Structure formats: C-alpha cells, structure tokens
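Incident log, support desk, overnight shift.

02:14 A customer reports that sequence design results differ from what the structure should imply. Their input is reproduced verbatim below. On-call engineer (initials T.W.) acknowledged and began investigating.
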C-alpha cells in the first residue's frame, strides 16, 4: 500500500499549460514546429492553466483527463482530503450546468480585476462564472449562441457577444442584454464577421 500511495503523491505536480506560448513558442527557445498550429488545442489560444494537480497519465499531457483525475481523488482522500476536494472543485460545476453546457466551451476569459473566470457555451446558450480565489461557482448568464467574452475595463464584468448579433454585459450578478440584435455577428474573439458584403 505504501508504494501505491507513493505513486499517488509522485503524480502530484505543478501543471502549467499556456496554449498561446505553446503554439507561438518562447523567444528564448527554438521556434516550435508549424504542425502545432493545426493540431489539438490550436484554437484554445486564451487557455493558460497554472495549478497543482494530480497528473494522471503524465505522458499524455497537455491533455485533460478529468475522468482519471476524479478517480485519483479516491485514494488521495486517504492521504490529503483537502487536496482531493480541491481537485474535484477545480474541474467541476453543478451537474445541471454541465448538462446545459452540452459538452462544449467556446471561450474563456478573466475579468479585469483577475477575480472571476467566465466560460461560454454557444451550444448551450450559457456563460458560467467562477470565483478564481475560492474556485466557487458564481452563476450563469443566458444568451442564445453566446460565445464571445471580453473583460470590461470599467468594472469587474464582461462583454458577451452572440452569433445571433446580440450583445450583453455582465456586472456582478446582473446580465443586461441589448434590446435588438446588431447587423454584425460576432465570433468567439469578439471580432465582427463580415457576410457576403466583404
């Protein structure tokens, strides 16, 4: 049993995955291969993870193995219950929210204060919010085909944009939607998409 627990502790490590840096490279290092820009995670430029996790299947990272990580938490709870709980909280939201996300996250953003994380699901028409320090789930905003997220500079909030042309703002627990859709539609980088007129 001692060897099994040692293996669990050995897999606990700092995990840092900055997708933009992974794609573009570090100026002090050789240029990464061009295949990265076409491979897995190439559209996740906004993703920058930095946390201590129980790293299942280290050889497969950068990869999310949430299922494996959840199973790691069972024996980890014997050794360090608080760490095991933090691992589950790191990757979770209420079950009904998971269903409403429909297995897809379009964008992730952090507010200007660096306190709230937002993730959008255009398939679910939903934006979910977490407090970064406590990892506590804060709530949701609903907007059809919502994907674009950008921090508002004026306060701790977000600009939300939709493929239907709708725009909304989120400040605190209040979401305010535009009264009419705009003629421009928006992608997940809050950039206008030009139609046939381009």
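02:41 Re-run completed on a clean worker. Output:
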């Amino acid at each position: 049993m001692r060897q099994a627990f040692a293996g669990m502790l050995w897999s606990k490590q700092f995990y840092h995955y900055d997708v933009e840096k992974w794609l573009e490279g570090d100026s002090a290092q050789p240029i990464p291969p061009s295949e990265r820009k076409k491979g897995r995670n190439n559209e996740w430029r906004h993703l920058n993870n930095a946390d201590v996790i129980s790293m299942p299947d280290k050889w497969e990272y950068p990869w999310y193995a949430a299922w494996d990580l959840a199973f790691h938490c069972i024996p980890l709870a014997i050794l360090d219950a608080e760490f095991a709980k933090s691992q589950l909280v790191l990757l979770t939201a209420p079950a009904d929210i998971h269903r409403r996300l429909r297995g897809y996250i379009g964008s992730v953003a952090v507010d200007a204060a660096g306190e709230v994380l937002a993730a959008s699901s255009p398939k679910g028409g939903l934006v979910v919010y977490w407090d970064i320090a406590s990892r506590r789930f804060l709530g949701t905003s609903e907007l059809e085909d919502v994907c674009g997220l950008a921090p508002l500079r004026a306060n701790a909030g977000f600009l939300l944009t939709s493929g239907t042309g709708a725009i909304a703002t989120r400040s605190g627990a209040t979401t305010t939607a535009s009264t009419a859709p705009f003629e421009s539609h928006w992608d997940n980088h809050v950039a206008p998409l030009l139609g046939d007129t381009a």
